[in-house]
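User: Could you check the structure of this?
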Amino acid sequence: MAVNPDPKPGRWILPLVVLGMIAFTYFFINELPEASPDTTLASGITTTTAPNGETTSTTGAEPGNGTVEPEVQAYLDELDEVNTSLQLLRTEMVTVNDGFDADPREIEYSDAEPRMETVEVDTQALADRVAAMTVPVGFETSHEALTSAIDQAAGAASDAVDGLQSDDPGDLRRAAVVAYTQAADNFATEVENTKTAAGVPTDG
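Assistant: Sure, the predicted structure tokens are below.
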């Protein structure tokens, strides 16, 4: 009876399978296409190959990733500050107007007049601040809309005071307060639009 020289022939199968997998992986990796010479990385770093073979890398904000240039961020931060102050003045204007119109009257003329005058002065100061802001390149059109909105608010505040001080039954004052609130809303909307244009996530 012949004797099998290898009583466990199956023990060679696994090493052969592993060797085959290694060879296949090596072949597969070598066949993969090379990366494009002009590639924008996820971090916002763009690598470019020049005709002479040299490579250069540039960084920049990608739309929607919340990263902007320092001067743009400073501009947006100041707009936020102005908008916060304007919305507080909007609340004060409505509070004084509604209190003066309440029946029975909750805010007397002697109190309503100086409070509305304060809103008028403070709103004009905000409008002057917006007019004096340094506008980053590319945001000129947005800034024009912002300037228009806050100038309208300043004018409406002045009209509200004039209406309060006149012998008008209240129609002029009420219309001016409505115009003021609308202008304040428009300014807030333009601030959000400007952030969106800059690629900064907004609360909305």
